[in-house]
Amino acid sequence: MISILNNIPTYDTVGVNERVSRYCTRSIKKSSKTEGLKLALSMIDLTTLEGKDTKGKVQQLCYKAMHPHDTLTNIPTVAAICVYPTYVGVAKKALQGSKIQVASVATAFPSGQSNIQAKLSDTKFAVDQGADEIDMVISRGEFLSGNYQFVFDEIATIKEACGKSHLKVILETGELDTLDNVRKASEIAMHAGADFIKTSTGKIQPAATLPVTYVMFDAIKDYYLKTGKMIGMKPAGGISTSKIALQYLVMLNEMLGEKWMNKNYFRFGASSLANDILMQLVKAETGIYQSHNYFSKD
């Protein structure tokens, strides 16, 4: 375990913020912006993770995933629906015949405060219900205590339980305190078998940020150069506007390149981003800017 964390870079917050600011000032042509918004829409994991979730709400969200806006032409569906394990079966049935994936949070989401038996049971239940992807949370308390081997072993164990389902590992970066810790957690997750690394649960602030994502992109790039294996990335929480989504895509393209510019290797974890993108696409097609009242509130 120690060898994994040897010789990894450290980060100066001011320097990272300066680099990130450059991606936020890129000029994007109107036609490129429209294509970028469609790409961002195709990368969304449309999410509902509330205690008040119901079968009807999940079914409605699945319908929206398949029919983002019936009056718009040539727009993609979202990448996935993300729900609690209880609703995986409901989502699978509602999405039948589509290519939209069903993702499920697991491992005592969002706190991760449970034993490995409960976390394995949580994961296996979601997989048995048909989950295509599992979004697990790491044990942040163990990580911050320096028990890196525990975190590595837990991820590897959950990865095995996923079978053919892809594993996204949530670092909950808002609780990791430093960019250096974000890099360490990214390294551990990738070496333990993560198919994706993910910033946040969306339940802790700050959630996804561009500086944190920069560090995780940097880790993914170095891992690819060392191993030849592409790891996906999912910023989640707090990404609610088209403008911010495009900034993430600019940084993705410039740091990782064209191979990562698709839903197989990049996702947005969001619940309200889709509506803002649809508003912008309606404006581009009709010249009329509609209010939020014309879109479903998910």
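(the above was protein one; protein two follows)
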Amino acid sequence: MTYLGGCLCGRIHFEAEGPPIEVHYCHCSMCRRATGSAFAVLAWFDTGDVIWTRGRPRILRSSSMAERGFCSECGTPLLLRHDRDNRLALMVGAFDRAAELEPTRHDGVEARLPWADTGARLPERFTEEVLTRHEAA
């Protein structure tokens, strides 16, 4: 199965050959800062199973043990890669079919925000703005 995705502005597209090795939430402070959100949702693939089909992410050394990639045009966070690991994690929100990539565990729970859940019981509303892969191209 091939998963497609990319950044918000369409400058970067990728393909990941799956299924992913694992998918999980990460609540660590580094992932929170990198995503600007309460947690990251990461899908891990062997590095060789990910192809950048349009553009390439800008890489930033984010710690002594990892680097992160993002679109230098729109800022979309795209990847996390730990040193000495032949896998990389792609941000689930960057996938076209993100609903197919369901997390199976939580990491970085020592930094989990006490209110960080999906808020399933909160009021809901639909958005009028919808981005499709073709609109971003």
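Reviewer note on protein two: The chain has two helices and ten strands.
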